[in-house]
Amino acid sequence: MGERGDIVLPGWQTMSYFSDVSNLCWFLEPEFAHQVRRLHSLVGNAVVDDGRFIIVGTGSTQLFQAALYALSPPDAAEPMSVVSAIPYYSSYPTVTDYLRSGLYRWAGDASTFEGDAYIELVCSPNNPDGSTREAVLSSKNGKTIHDLAYYWPQYTAITGAADHDIMLFTVSKSTGHAGARLGWALVKDKDVAQRMTKFIELNTIGVSKDSQLRVAKILKVVLDMYELPGNKHRLFEYGRRQMSMRWRKLRAAVKASGIFSLPEFQSSLCRFTGEETETYPAFAWLKCEKEGVEDCESFLRNHKLLTRSGRHFGVEAKYVRISMLDRDETFDLFIQRLLSLR
């Protein structure tokens, strides 16, 4: 990307709270919205027609909270139950119960939930295990939030354009610019979009314009690369090559150790590449098969490997989550240390 991704913001620019007063999400920068629509149109991973409302947030975490607020009845006798099938993203229960809201509360595993009113969180591809997910519950009083942070070609096959009521995306997992702290939601229902916007207004009085303009420029550079004939500097292809190489190294190390196992994934036809492609999740869901080891996180920590225990994701401690997105030198050291274990 180099200097093409640079942006200069004059001191007088972005001084107002407002970006576009004619837009339902009045703090959404028009250029950022334009590049988001270009991005989904190119990749084909989500329906983003003019009937969809784009809500920008400070990362997808704020949007997740905004969606909970928007979907919870303000006058219900009991808080709305928030559920997700195990293994679920470890931040779901923490964020849900952080403010001890009277509107909603964490209710655990969606697969064992009994009730008619709920908000189900569907993360697909799933963090932590990389599996493709669909909602497990169905009820006229139930609501669903689809967290599609990892539904990008570097991680998985794009099998079609997702078309759900609320879909969450984040810059950190699409281009890797986590420090921008920016995410967006695609929302069908106008009333839900208005309530999400109101939550962000009350929470942070909008979202950083500087971040939006910076990310808009980055997305423009990424997308323009796909319009140049014969150009080899394309983000998603590069990312997929890197993920493929890392997963090959990891699977070889796991096989050599003889004491770990990893999930297996089926290949699928990717509409973005036009090829049959495999899944290379952003996280490895590692299980320790070594006799006598019940706590895989502690076992690996004793060998100078930092992971996150399966207990944070609602399952047993034999599982750990490992990031596949760290710097090359860190990842290579991880593989080296994993190979030393037997």
Order of helices and strands: HEHEHEEEEHEHHHEEEEHEEH
Mean pLDDT: 95
User: Could you state the CATH homologous superfamily of the largest domain?
Assistant: Type I PLP-dependent aspartate aminotransferase-like (Major domain)
* Coarse morphology: globular
What low-confidence regions span 5 or more consecutive residues with pLDDT below 50?
none
Give a structural overview:
The chain is α/β, with parallel strands linked by helices and 342 residues long. The protein is 32% helix and 17% strand. A seven-stranded mixed beta sheet has the order 1-7-6-5-4-2-3. Helix 1 packs parallel to helix 6. The longest helix has 23 residues, at 235-257. The N and C termini lie far apart (42 Å). Belongs to the alliinase family. Keywords: Pyridoxal phosphate. It comes from Ensete ventricosum (Abyssinian banana). This is Alliinase C-terminal domain-containing protein.
